[in-house]
Design brief:
- The structure is a single chain.
- The strands form three sheets. A six-stranded mixed beta sheet has the order 5-4-3-6-7-10, with helices on both faces.
- The chain is 36% helix and 24% strand.
- Helix 3 packs antiparallel against helix 10, helix 6 packs parallel to helix 7 and helix 7 packs parallel to helix 8.
- By secondary structure, the chain is of the alpha/beta class.
Length: 331
């Protein structure tokens, strides 16, 4: 609820009575009364003032209040509520996240999977009108969260994502399967723009779907794919189930395939070797894929003068009645 005066300059009229009384020599109520009779000591008479005498300025006060109310009416007080009108629609986004065991590597602190989840959460929080879904994949892929505008639910589910050991899935990286799963999630979408953001740290070594064939299928229905290669090409640290830190190579990282997937679908490929690089990657994608939304805010104003008008009439009538009755004076 918001409030305003439609004619705020009318409030300047409130100073007119003050100017008038200054011009005539001051406010009547402040001028001392001239006694009719003089006594050497009025204490001998006691307090002779009646309630009429005590309240003799009441009509003047009522008249002043009436004037204030009239000025407020002229200023037109209004209250209103904002209404937001959205024109256009958001885009549909599916985040495809690799959860194979190599995502436990610590070259990106604290681990690749946790670093990816942190930046994905920031990306989700930056959306406003876009539906966002989540697909996770290793040797197989499955829909984790369908496209939704409920970002709180999505981020809660994202925080629960772990590597494959918690899902009893076969280890490996099925990039083609992950793309197809994400495309299927977008197949029925009617959004004007549909995109997949795929993050992986390996090459396609599982599944029977060629990643490039999956990319062509995505391109055929108008889905654009952004691919993110995560991690360094040098040796990385992995922690085994026994707690022993082992060194393993990331030589199988297939950067060429990820680049070609992005090219086929008119997307882009990004390489992220640390948290800062991963953050920049999602920020660039966020800047490239913005909703075609036109937001207009309207305010429906309602006049709030009626109560003031009624109050002013009541005060004015009361003032006139008092002057003609209990506070009537003889000329």
């Amino acid at each position: 609820m918001i409030f305003r005066f439609a004619n705020p300059f009318a409030l300047l009229l409130l100073i007119l009575p003050a100017i008038y009384f200054v011009m005539i020599g001051g406010f009547p109520a402040l001028r001392p009364s001239i006694p009719v009779l003089r006594y050497s000591d009025t204490r001998l008479l006691g307090d002779t003032r009646s309630w009429r005498v005590r309240l003799r300025r009441l009509p003047d006060v009522l008249r002043m209040l009436t004037w204030v109310l009239i000025v407020l009416v002229i200023a037109r007080p209004q209250s209103g509520r904002e209404q937001e009108v959205i024109r256009g629609q958001g885009i549909d986004i599916v985040l495809a996240l690799d959860i194979s065991s190599s995502m436990e590597a610590t070259d990106i602190a604290p681990t690749r999977i946790e670093g990816a989840k942190a930046q994905i959460q920031n990306f989700i929080e930056g959306r406003e009108f876009d539906r966002v879904g989540l697909v996770v994949f290793a040797a197989d892929a499955f829909h984790y969260v369908p496209p939704t505008l409920d970002y709180d639910v999505l981020t809660d589910r994202l925080s629960d994502v772990e590597i494959i050991t918690d899902y009893q899935l076969e280890n490996g990286t099925a990039i083609g399967t992950g793309i197809v799963s994400a495309v299927n999630m977008l197949r029925e979408s009617e959004a004007s723009s549909r995109i997949i953001i795929m993050l992986t740290d390996g090459s396609n070594n599982k599944g029977n779907i060629n990643p490039l064939d999956a990319a062509r299928a995505a391109e055929s229905i108008g889905v654009r794919i952004y691919t993110i290669g995560m991690g360094r090409e040098t040796s990385v640290a992995l922690t085994s189930d026994s707690g022993v830190v082992q060194q393993t190579s990331n030589d199988e990282f297939d950067e060429g395939t990820l680049q070609e997937i992005a090219t086929i679908t008119d997307g882009l490929y990004f390489r992220a070797e640390d948290n800062a690089g991963l953050q920049r990657t999602y920020e660039q994608i966020d800047a490239l894929e913005r909703s075609d939304i036109e937001r207009q805010v309207f305010v429906r104003w309602r006049e709030r003068s009626m109560a003031l008008i009624v109050s002013a009439v009541v005060l004015l009538l009361s003032e006139r009645v008092m002057r003609q009755t209990i506070f009537q004076t003889i000329p």
